Amino acid sequence: MADPGRHPDLDGSGMLRGGVSDAVVSGVGDVFVMRMHYERYGDYEMNNHIVEYEPDRRIGWEPKPGRGHPDASAPGAAWGHRWIFDLVPDAPGATVVTETFDGSRMPEDKRAEVDSGHAWWRTQMANTLERLAALCTAR
Question: CATH number for the domain including 125?
Fold first, then answer.
């Protein structure tokens, strides 16, 4: 999870195209930039600011529009949402992973938009967790 270069392998949305750099996250305050593609926006980048980090236990980032994103220069473009992964050891060689989309810091209009029309995110999150499980159990 701390290696953005591996995120496309985990991505259940099909939107990630790869990391801009190969730097591994080392703590809160780091920023990793991902190349993205979304039909509505085309190709763009997202600047992901690490806001929570405990090695091998928890990682959370707040995405902000980057180069090529239509909102990159708009004031207040960042929604304040977070993607969080919690990893809890369960047994020898086993870990329970929980992915959270935290929209509690989002402006009310953006939260309502996500709640009303973007339930597909839940499916993509489930796809991500399934891909992670497959990568971790592949031998």
Answer: 3.30.530.20
